[in-house]
Amino acid sequence: MGIKAFAMKPERLETPLDEQTVRELRIGDMVLLNGLVVTGRDRVHKFLFGKTPEELTLPVELNGLVLYHCGPLVRSTTTGYEIVSAGPTTSARMDIYEPWVIEKFGIRGIIGKGGMGEETVVAMKNCGCVYFHAVSGAAALLAKCINKVVNVWQEETFGTTEAMWILELEDFPAVVTIDAHGNSLHDDVLRESEKVYRSFMGDNNG
Amino acid sequence: MLKLQDGIVELYRKVSTSLPNDVEEALQRAYQEEPPGVTRESLSAVIENIRIARSEARPICQDTGVPTFYVQIPRQLSQIEVRETIIEATKRATREIPLRANAVDCITERNSGDNTGKLFPIIYFEETREDRLIIDLMLKGGGSENLGQTYKLPLSELKAQRDFEGIKRCVIDAVFKAQGKGCPPYTIGVAIGASKDQVTYLSKKQLLRRLDEEHPSAELARLERDILEAVNSLGIGPLGFGGRFTALSVKVDCASRHPASYFVDVSFSCWANRRGRLVWG
Prior knowledge:
The complex is a heterodimer of chains A (206) and B (281). Chain A is α/β, with parallel strands linked by helices. In chain A, 27% of the residues lie in helices and 29% in strands.
């Protein structure tokens, strides 16, 4: 599609992802994601929490797939759906559910923004899963990296924003900010900013 | 009121699909000044996104926010009629642009599908002596809204007293806690005053100011610059990837306070600081 997002040369990845591919990624890597992803935000996570794949009839096999924290802006057309804008939502809200979802459903990658908490970072390390940080707010650009809407699940019950959208990506740009080795760019930034924070609060003098 | 309804739909279109030039210029400057790396690359995607959104009339962000209106209404116009016109325009804009439907009923958990609901959109009225109706619209996403904080000074955990240094500590604390969760570089609104509802309203209203507009009070203008410098020294950076531009601008205002009270409120806008004005009549 020729969307010019990254000038530096990123690596192209194709879903479903296997463990080895995921383990080779490191924080700071720029990637272009291709293939199937499913969206899931607050309602989908709450629904999956405490359940196993065997108990559910899901529209797609989640094992090896990438889960996108996104509530897309969608327009109905005569032939189906058009994704108008579709950037990431704040991932921290999914933290209480995510270790379960990664472990039980075999998710290999999460696309979101803002990073995730310690327990999720540990689950990613243990299970072999990475966090792809999408360009927050770049929703028009990112929508153009969605080739087609394959299916939608629970639109009636969860609503359009909260439904699970099964999408096909083409060269969707993202940065690995949590890898499968326990490293988190967000933790690094937090630690560095904390030093400055403490100097302002006068805690350095004591 | 039908023509006004058309005008408000167009205001929605402009605000959801394009950024004010001062915000775009500030983002360009951040892009120029950040060193090469993922932070700078991501800012280039942000700038490309702004271009795509404007040229294709697509909303900049899928989260088109809680529509918040600040209406200056001439005395001869009816608030009830303007409110009803805004609500009808909201339904049309949601369908026609489109906007994401964001109004969820807290009891049934159902989304109304048209961005209207109980006290949704948010509409503030203020009567004006002018003949013209002035409507400011802010579309602010949930991510940045969730980061807002209210403080009561003095506050021992921040060693914050009732002075400008104390105010600065509150803002540094709010930004530190926010990290990159709400899509920095942020525009930050700050207000000081006598009651928590008033400072929350006032701090968010600061986000309507142009980024290059300093407060008319020299003391507050200095405080705005001082806080901006402090916040940017945290190094959180665009998107939270680390960098020099954690915030684009800090805007402060104050109301008179009660001798016993000193409320400080901090509001955040994401980099997509979407605001616009309609002047009618």
